[in-house]
Amino acid sequence: MQANFVIDLGEKAQVPIISYSASSPSLTSIRSPYFFRATQNDSTQVNAISAIVQAFGWREAVPIYVDNEYGKGVIPYLTDALQAIDTRIPYRCVISPAATDDEIVEELYKLMTMQTRVFIVHMSPSLGSRFFIKASEVGMMSEGYVWIMTDGMTSSITPQVIDSMQGVLGVRPYVPNTQALEDFRVRWKRKFQQVESELNIYGLWAYDAATILAIAIEKAGIANFGFQKTNVSSNSTDISALGFSRNGENLIEALSNTRVTGLTGDIHFVNGQLPSSAFQIVNLIGEGARVLGFWTPRNGLVKKLNSITNTSLYSTSKSNLAPVIWPGDSTSVPKGWEIPTNGNKLRIGVPVKDGFSEFVKVTRDAGTKTTTVTGYCIDVFEAVVKALPYALPYEYIPFAKPDGGSAGTYDDMVYQLYLGSFDAVVGDTTVIANRSLYADFTLPYTESGVSMIVPIKDNNNKNAWVFLKPLTWDLWMASFCFFVFIGFVVWVLEHRINEDFRGPPSHQVGTSFWFSFSTMVFAHREIVVSNLARTVVIIWCFVVLILTQSYTASLTSLLTVQQLLPTVTDVNQLIKNGQYVGYQEGSFVVGILKGLGFDESKLKVYNSTEECDELFSKGSGNGGIAAAFDEVPYTKLFLAQYCSKYTLVEPTFKTDGFGFAFPKGSPLVPDVSRAILNVTEGDKMKEIEQEWFGKQSNCPDPSSSVSSSSLSLQSFWGLFLIAGVASVSALLIFTARFVYEHRQASMRSDSKASIWSRILYLFKIFDQKDLKSHTFRKSERNEIQLKYPPSMGAPSPSICSVHTDFPVEEGTPSPEYGDPSSNGQPPQEVVPNIELANTNQETSIAIEGTRDN
């Protein structure tokens, strides 16, 4: 208020007003060209404070400020800075400038009953000193509390109160330790020895303000500081009687354009304000303040100012601060909130419902008028509370009417958190988007999603043509084509060298198909002699083996296993046929069904698994339903009881499962979420599920109850590819060899013949036997007995053997010498009658004898 008055006075008198202590942000709104602030605006430090809060992860903070212009001016800026980092302000503590010690203590006790333990203090040094002394006396400077002071108090700490402020954090403008500052301190102590303490930051700003003013006057060349009088009334209290300065505007211009290096650093005015500077973050320990780090508008929290680079990013990491000694000499970071020992228990709202009592069941004893809450969700919550690192007192409050019935839907129950009726909601409450607008949810502790339940029917049709079902039509066709193709390939490879594949055309076609299709049962008796054909047959037999085994297994399954199929597989089919569907009463699922296009008249409500089964039994045409939509935990419970009659089908609509709800900004949410992870990852969750839902081993696996699809070509195209590549490769190799071997014969046939004629000639050769093949040779050794002619001068008849390695037709052998038919005379003809099987082949005959020649 004093600053406002003086600024208004300077405005009227056209005299610049320089302040080194008026830091309230509200003064900026005056926008007077005659006001120069030679101190930091309080709004510049709120981002440094919010960076500290964000670095340590505190979700709530309570501002404590003096009830005047100085205290109120910074609160809007502090609120905006905390909201920007998602930190809530649950309460504002306002202290009167004239508050007594009893009034301060009363306010402190009120703060002790709250959960929040992070306090931001913004008040004058004199009032702040009394406040911290009383906070220490009532025990609020102990472990678990967090105190942060603004620069007004941090820069004006006196030794008399520092013992009551141990562990407090503070921010203050950074003043570089220069030689000029050291020389000034020496001069100050020498001249004012009676002053015990050094000048604080406000004293240094005052010195710099006087310095820049003196330099500005010299730059402006002002010698006359007179006032020009105006016509005023005789009233001596009229301010206008002062007149106005003749050099005010010149001095304003000089101050705006003057820049000096003062004791606090670079001093210059931008729109009458000092630019925002770096702040020191200090920790009050022992008899002084220990520097933890710095905050700058550009880089956020940093350890050292000289380590800042132009590429540094804005940081709010606590690793950039030195270790903190917190109140109570603790080195553990306070979590920022506590359950007050003298506070009330947490009010836990629980739903009241008739069915699905396995999840939540509220029982009221009329005799003792006590309420008992049990169920799966309750056991999970109690296990989570035990996993917390601290005690959490609570009590269950049913969300019910006076008559005991439910007081509304689940949305209504969660909305009570926003109204302040509950401190938490525990039950089978699903995390969905519209509920998160007025409540914070923990991590889910159940599976998520909404599924459709439909009845199942036996589709095991054992008709006369069931043997065709194991394979799809495309696989049947592909198999048939490959049987024909393999028969053709083997015929080509064996036709010239294998008697089994020769003969009349009909015989050759029948033999080829017989050979190929008989491989299906491995009954082929024809022998293949070509290595290429053997390779093709081996690969094809492997393919046939896989096909037959797969066919046998699939047919066996069709004939023996019960084939259970869902009666409905498509949601659109239900909508198109106008069939009725069911949902659980009070569930958000009704919104999903309407969004899918279901008419509201086609929706039926059920409250329990038994009622749902009854609706299914009636059927959609008789007042029942054809399908039911519910969340995964409920569907699992339903199928555990009726697994032989119903099944789940796609699609599954995504949701986030069951979670615990708390008011917006509640500090309990992260701790409870971490405890949920600890419980769900351990054996405790399995024990709770088994206790409430039992073992479901008697229920068949849904995947085994649904008929498997027929085998398709997609499953075997790799095998067919291998067989096809092998067969085509064998054909190409055979063709290349055949053409190469008979290239001369085709050229000699007629040099002027066309290509087509030569191809026909090659086909004629192909249709003939390949007599050079080993399959047309006799494997036995032929022995022919010869006699030497007399002209060779043999003294006596000798016997020799002629060995041949080619087929021959033996003639009539000559009688041996001395045979009775020879009459004792040597024969005139000694060369045997040998007819070669192939007269075009040149053959050598080796004769072995006892004579040297």
Description:
It is a single chain. It contains 24 helices and 32 strands. The protein is elongated and about 140 Å long. It is an alpha/beta fold. Mean pLDDT is 80; it is low at 702-707, 778-788, 792-844 and 846-853. Helix content is 36%, strand content 16%. The strands form ten sheets. It has an eight-stranded mixed β-sheet, sandwiched between helices. Strands 21, 22, 23, 24, 25 and 26 form a six-stranded mixed β-sheet that branches. Strand 23 (581-584), helix 16 (589-596) and strand 24 form a beta-alpha-beta unit.
Main attributes of the structure:
853 residues; alpha/beta; six-stranded mixed beta sheet; 24 helices; eight-stranded mixed beta sheet; 32 strands
Describe the protein's topology.
Layout: H1 2-13, E1 17-19, E2 35-37, H2 46-55, E3 62-66, H3 69-84, E4 93-95, H4 101-112, E5 118-122, H5 125-137, E6 146-149, H6 151-154, E7 169-173, H7 179-191, H8 201-220, E8 227-228, E9 244-245, H9 248-256, E10 259-262, E11 265-268, E12 279-285, E13 288-296, E14 300-302, E15 346-351, E16 361-365, E17 370-374, H10 376-387, E18 394-399, H11 410-419, E19 424-425, E20 440-441, E21 450-458, H12 473-494, H13 505-518, H14 531-560, E22 564-566, H15 571-577, E23 581-584, H16 589-596, E24 603-606, H17 609-618, E25 627-631, H18 632-641, E26 646-653, E27 661-662, H19 668-680, H20 684-693, H21 702-705, H22 717-741, H23 743-749, H24 755-767, E28 782-786, E29 800-804, E30 808-810, E31 834-836, E32 846-848
Parallel strand pairs: 1-2, 3-4, 3-5, 5-6, 6-7, 15-18, 15-19, 23-24, 23-25
Antiparallel strand pairs: 7-12, 8-9, 10-11, 12-13, 13-14, 16-17, 20-27, 21-22, 21-25, 21-26, 28-29, 29-32, 30-31
Helix pairs in contact: 2-3, 4-5, 8-9, 10-19, 10-20, 12-13, 12-14, 12-22, 14-22
